[in-house]
Design goal:
Length: 347
């Protein structure tokens, strides 16, 4: 048979070798295609990674730039903070020096004011409540005994604090000069001369004067032995407590100092014949202008009169405590708006 011939074996062997070689070539080609595909994937992924790397490097640079700016900003903030702290320290030192100076001025102002013991040696039934809004006060009280009379004043200067305190020194000095050196005894005349003295001291008569400050004054001349009093007021009243009623003796409608009135300022006297147990009250507007109470309103002159009337049967020795309690109760947690001064006398 032919399959046992040499040529058949040769053909079969050649065919087998050709088939194996074809299979080998096919596998080689498939392998090369896979390699090419994988290389393409590697190249694509490498390209993506390169792009990501570039983005990360860009982000890194941005972060480094921002960090640098933040660092510079932080250095500036630290520097500014140090400057602010230095300024704060300097202001605190200056404020302390100023406050210390004002506290020393308070001692001077306190030394000038008449001692309660001096007043009580002439007016045994007497009390005073004196509460500056600030360290020093624009309110001051003045007392001058002369022969059989005593002169007593409650003066409310323009403003409070240091400006008011300067005005109080002017007023106190002028009153001593008018009554003590110039021997003027009539309250109305004293106020007229005080008005002229303030205007002269502050050059208010000159054109373009800047300091047009003034004073509201309650001024009493009392002759206790004769039970007679003379009152004159500049924008301030006198309250007389008698038989459970409060009578208001009004002052003139202009202050001492400040702007001139047409025709000048002429103050008037009110003479009072005093009776046993009469009580006299003079006070600054810091009392009636104080905000407080349940509706946060001004205390008002009406409430003040009603309260003083309610003290008629209270021993005079307790009046100062009762008045202080009333003021504290009304003010409550509200800020004190002005200097407060109250003077009470029982005949």
């Amino acid at each position: 048979p032919f399959w046992r011939t040499w040529w058949f074996y040769t053909l079969a062997s050649g065919s087998a070798i050709g088939l194996l070689f074809g299979l080998y070539r096919l596998r080689i080609r498939n392998f090369e295609k896979q390699q090419e595909y994988l290389q393409q994937q590697v190249d694509l992924r490498t390209e993506e990674l390169e792009k990501e790397k570039e983005k990360l490097e860009g982000a890194k640079k941005d972060i480094e730039t921002k960090n640098k700016k933040l660092w510079e900003t932080n250095l500036n903030v630290v520097s500014e903070k140090e400057k602010v702290e230095n300024i704060k320290k300097l202001l605190e030192e200056k404020n302390k020096h100023i406050t210390d100076s004002i506290r020393y001025a308070k001692q001077i102002q306190k030394a000038i004011l008449p001692k309660s013991s001096l007043i009580k040696s002439h007016i045994p039934a007497f009390f005073i409540i004196y509460e500056p809004k600030d360290i020093v006060s624009g309110d001051f009280y003045w007392f001058y005994p002369k022969d059989d009379k005593v002169f007593l004043a409650a003066v409310d200067c323009t403003g409070h604090g240091v400006p008011g305190a300067f005005m109080s020194l002017i007023g106190y000095t002028l009153l001593n000069q008018i009554v003590g050196e110039q021997e003027v005894n009539e309250p109305a005349k004293i106020l007229e001369m005080l008005d002229k003295g303030v205007k002269k001291s502050l050059h208010q008569h000159m054109e373009g004067a800047e300091a047009m400050d003034g004073m509201d004054v309650s001024l009493l001349s009392i002759d206790l032995s004769a039970k007679r009093a003379v009152y004159s007021g500049a924008l301030r009243p006198l309250f007389l407590s008698r038989d459970g009623e409060i009578e208001e003796i009004k002052g003139n409608r202009y202050s001492v100092g400040g702007h001139e009135m047409r025709g000048g300022k002429h103050f008037s006297d009110s003479e009072l014949k005093l009776r046993k147990d009469d009580k006299l009250y003079i006070f600054s507007d810091g009392v009636t202008d104080q905000f407080g109470g349940p509706k946060s309103r001004k205390y008002s002159k009406k409430n003040w009169r009603e309260f003083l009337a309610s003290l008629y049967h209270v021993p005079f020795a307790d009046h100062d405590k009762k008045v202080q309690q009333e003021l504290n109760s009304w003010q409550g947690s509200h800020e004190q708006l002005d200097d407060i001064m109250i003077i009470g006398i029982q005949v």
